[in-house]
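Cross-posting from the modeling subforum.

Setting up a comparison between two proteins and wanted a second pair of eyes on the formatting. Protein 1 (sequence, then C-alpha cells):
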Amino acid sequence: MTTYRLFHMPGACSRVAMNALCELQIPFDDAAVNIFQGEQRAPPYLSKNPKGKVPALQVGDNILTELAAILIYLDGQNPGQLLPPTEDPVVRAQHWADLIWCSNTLHAIARSIFMPARIAPGAEAAVRETANAQLAPIVADIERRIGDGWWHGEVWSITDVYVSWCLGMAAMGGFELGAHPSIVAHAERVRSRPSFEDALDRERKAIERQGIQLPPGVRL
C-alpha cells in the first residue's frame, strides 16, 4: 500500500495539496515546515526536498515537488475526482494547463502583491503597484468565467481551490476584492466544502502541535 506524507506550511499554497488529499480521502501524514523560521532551508528538510520549498509530497520512498505537479499526479491516480472526468486527452491537458497557469502566472502575481520585498527589496511599492495592475484584468476574467458557479461550470475542481488561494493571498496583500462579489462568493463556496474544512483543521492542529506563529497579515 502506498503511503503519503505531505510537507506543508499552514496558510501557504500547500493547503491546496492538503485539500486535494482530504477530498480524495487518502490516508496521509502531514509535517509542517515553518518557512517563516527558515526550516525549509535547514538540512533535515533539504535532505528530503533540495528545492527548499513547500509543498512536497512523499509517495512511498519518492518525493514529488511543485504544487501543480503534485495535483496532476493525484489527478492521474484518481481520475475524475479532482478535475472533471474526461476521456479526451486534449481536454485533460487543458485541465492540467489551468493548474500550471495558476502556478506560473496567478500565483506569481499574487505573491508579488503579498510579499513584494521577496521580488525587489527596497522597491516594494513599485512591485506591488505593477502586480496590482497585472492582476486587475485577470480577476475580471475569472469573475466572468466563474459567475455563480465553479471554474468548470457546475462542477467543483481543485482548480477552484488554487485560484481562490491565490486571490486570497493577493487580498491579504491589499488587492481589493470587494468590488468583485462573485469572487468573494466563490471563496466562500470553496471554504464551505468538507474537504477544505478538513484541510484547515489539519493546519490548525499543526500550528498548535509545533507552536507556529503566523506573521502579521497572514490569515488561515
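Protein 2 (same layout):
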Amino acid sequence: MKELRDHNTREWFAENKARYLEDVQEPAIEFVADFEPHLRRITPSFRADARPVGGSLFRIQRDIRFSKDKTPYKTHTGIHFRHRSASDVHAPGFYLHLEPGTVFAAVGIWHPDTATQRRIRDKMAADPAGWRRAKGGSFGKTYELTGETLKRPPPGFPPDHPLIEDLKRKDFVGEAHLSEKRATSAGFLEEYAGLCRAAVPFLRFLCSAVGVPV
C-alpha cells in the first residue's frame, strides 16, 4: 500500500496485481471468513461475506466519476460487515480500516440519508437516557464518536436541547484507533471481535431507530 501510494497508476497496479492478490486480497478474505463465527456469536443480524467481489471486502478501485482526485486505486484496505437486511454501505455495520499510518475499527451508520438521520434524531430525543447509555459504558471507553456535524440545529430541535451536539451529527459512527503492530499481531482476530462486542449497545440503539433487528 505504501508503494501503491507512490505509484498510483493503472500501469503500475497491473504489473503488481499478483502481489496485491497474494499479500492483500487473499489475507483479507481469509480474515473475513475466520471472523464469521465470531460475528455470528456477537450478533446474528450482521454478515461476514468472504466473496472477493460484492462481499465484505471493499474493492480496491476508487469511484472517480465525481471526484477531482483521479487516482484510480485506494491506498487502504476496507472491510465492512453489513446488516443482513441491507446491502447499502450507509446501513448499520462494523468496519475495519487498514492503511499505513491509519488503522481503526468503526461501527455505526456513515452518511445516512435525510430520512434515516431524522429517525435516529427522533429516537435520541424520545429516549435520551437510552442514547446516553448507548454511547457510554463499554462503547464509550473504547470508541470516540466522529463524522460530520451540522453547524446549526436540525429542523424541529431547539438550540438549547440537552442533546443538541449529538442531534447535530450527520454521521453516527464510533472509531477506535489502533496501531499497525496490534493489527498485524497473532491475536488480532480475537481483539477485533472484542471491539465489536463492546459496540453492540451503540449498534442496538441505531438498529432500533431505523427499525432493523440486532
